[in-house]
Specification:
Radius of gyration: 17 Å
Helix content: 10-25%
Number of domains: 1
Strand order of the largest sheet: 2-1-3
Order of helices and strands: EEEHH
Number of helices: 2
Structural class: alpha+beta
């Protein structure tokens, strides 16, 4: 292996998932998509991938987040941002 490929430390994901509450349902939003859309993830599943993970813990519920992502404003913004 090339010298630049050998690193002394193990790779760690940029996002911390250790504090993610797996006892609650969550949403994932694909980072690469023409329009924003939410996919429900059942409790107990750890979404390890390059998607955005959303856990409702404040004033907004997962349903409200899904509605916002499916709104005309979000879809239009996603279409304008897509090359």
């Amino acid at each position: 292996m090339a010298k630049r490929g050998r690193q002394g430390k193990a790779w760690m994901p940029p996002e911390s998932f250790h504090a993610l509450d797996l006892s609650r349902e969550s949403l994932i939003v694909p980072r690469i998509a023409k329009t924003p859309r939410a996919v429900r993830v059942p409790p107990g599943v750890l979404p390890i991938n390059h998607n955005l993970s959303i856990v409702a813990g404040g004033a907004a519920t997962l349903g409200q987040v899904e509605e916002a992502l499916a709104s005309a404003v979000a879809v239009d913004a996603g279409l304008r941002a897509t090359p």
